[in-house]
């Protein structure tokens, strides 16, 4: 792909697909000048999960101040912004609409190009920021609260899907299991913390769909956790052992399928991304397997694994360089497949 380094030097990016409002300014597609975020996790924790209407309202009050803050932290002026990138799907429609509306207003006011970014492409692109040397092609495991995908990244914005979850996403499984254990939302970090000191072999949680290629299934694991909890009939739960065993089952499945994807495609580089990628047990286990097979693993720092706007700026930059532009009719698309999929 041809890059014109004189174009789109400063992209202002907005992310509001779920419960984080984030604005970042990214220089030349890979260098973060500012990254500002307001997490609503505490607000939703009281309800045990994200409440869409509350999320939308919180985005409305956060997005404007965050845009100003991002500009100040980058030490830039509005006239220095060359383009605006925004997550326009998938996600919660009301939440997405806030970011999309703000991005359209800003692009119109500044007279600069606008581009919509697919949230999953954003997660993959977090690796471009963390690893300046990384260029396609490579394999990617995307494990977040709403998605679990294994894909080949053939070029910027060109993907071949190798497999995905047939039911729950890996992060969703963590969130639901945590709820069953009485642990706070978001469940992934809670399970990881609770698992410390627990025995990962204490409970025989299933490793599903072993013979289903690169597809995943996590709903049976959630049911298995429910059954284990019921078996204690209200007595004190061995939370550390349950959390550690559950975490190990998710990690084993993600690692096994990723290595399968690498072996079937012949790629030697794999990028891990999405909120679940911040899990230390997963990072260590995948690193160990990659070392054994001679594969190179790329993982962003934890702050770039969960939702952020830096990744949207990086993804938007490459779409802009390809000549892509969104009009002021850009809409939020709550359910949308990864763009640029090829057979
Ligand atoms: O990518 P992300 O921030 O939002 C979505 O696009 O969904 O991912 C959020 C998901 C949640 O399900 C959360 O429980 C999970 O990532 N997560 C983790 C960890 N940190 C976040 N899962 C396991 N271990 C973690 N340390
Ligand atoms: Zn995400």
Structure description:
- This protein is of the alpha/beta class and 343 residues long.
- Helix content is 43%, strand content 19%.
- The chain is built from 11 helices and 10 strands.
- It has a 5-stranded mixed β-sheet with strand order 3-2-1-4-5, with helices on both faces. A 5-stranded mixed β-sheet has the order 8-7-6-9-10, with helices on both faces.
- A hairpin with a 4-residue loop joins strand 1 (10-15) and strand 2 (20-27).
- Helix 5 runs antiparallel to helix 8.
- It is globular and about 60 Å long.
- It binds 5'-O-[(R)-(carboxyoxy)(hydroxy)phosphoryl]adenosine and zinc ion.
Q: What best-fitting shape do the alpha-carbon axes yield?
A: globular
Which strand order spans the largest sheet, edge to edge or round the barrel? 3-2-1-4-5
> How many angstroms separate the termini?
20 Å
The kinds of small molecule bound in this structure are: 5'-O-[(R)-(carboxyoxy)(hydroxy)phosphoryl]adenosine, zinc ion
Helix amount: 40-55%
How would you concisely characterize the structure shown here?
The protein is an alpha/beta fold and 343 residues long. The chain contains 11 helices and 10 strands.
């Amino acid at each position: 792909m041809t890059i014109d380094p004189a174009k789109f030097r400063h992209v202002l990016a907005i992310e509001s697909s779920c419960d984080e409002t984030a604005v970042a300014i990214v220089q030349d597609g890979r260098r973060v000048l500012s990254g500002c975020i307001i997490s609503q996790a505490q607000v939703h924790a009281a309800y045990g999960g994200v409440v869409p209407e509350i999320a939308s309202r919180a985005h409305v009050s956060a997005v404007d101040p965050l845009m100003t803050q991002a500009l100040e932290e980058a030490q830039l002026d509005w006239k220095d912004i060359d383009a605006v990138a925004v997550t326009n799907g998938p996600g919660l429609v009301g939440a997405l609409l806030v970011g999309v509306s703000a991005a359209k207003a800003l692009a119109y006011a500044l007279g600069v190009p606008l581009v919509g970014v697919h949230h999953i492409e954003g997660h993959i692109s977090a690796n471009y920021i963390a690893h300046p040397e990384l260029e396609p092609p490579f394999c990617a495991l995307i494990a977040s609260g709403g998605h679990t995908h294994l894909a080949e990244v053939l070029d910027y914005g060109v993907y071949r899907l190798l497999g995905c979850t047939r039911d729950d996403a890996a992060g969703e499984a963590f969130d639901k299991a945590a709820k069953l254990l009485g642990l706070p939302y978001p469940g992934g970090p809670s399970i990881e913390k609770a698992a410390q000191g627990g025995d990962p072999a204490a409970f025989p949680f299933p490793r599903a769909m072993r013979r289903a290629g690169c597809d995943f299934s996590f709903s049976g694991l959630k049911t298995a956790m429910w059954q284990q909890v019921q078996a204690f009939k209200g007595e004190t739960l061995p939370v550390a052992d349950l959390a550690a065993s559950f975490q190990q089952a998710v990690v084993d499945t993600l690692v096994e399928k990723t290595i399968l994807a690498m072996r079937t495609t012949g790629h030697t580089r794999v990028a891990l991304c999405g909120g679940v990628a911040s899990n230390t047990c997963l990072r260590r286990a995948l690193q160990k397997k990659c070392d054994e097979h001679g594969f190179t693993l790329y993982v962003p720092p934890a702050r770039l694994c969960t939702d952020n706007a830096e990744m949207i700026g990086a993804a938007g930059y490459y779409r802009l360089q390809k000549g892509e532009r969104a009009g002021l009719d850009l809409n939020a698309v709550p359910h949308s497949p990864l763009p640029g999929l090829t057979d």
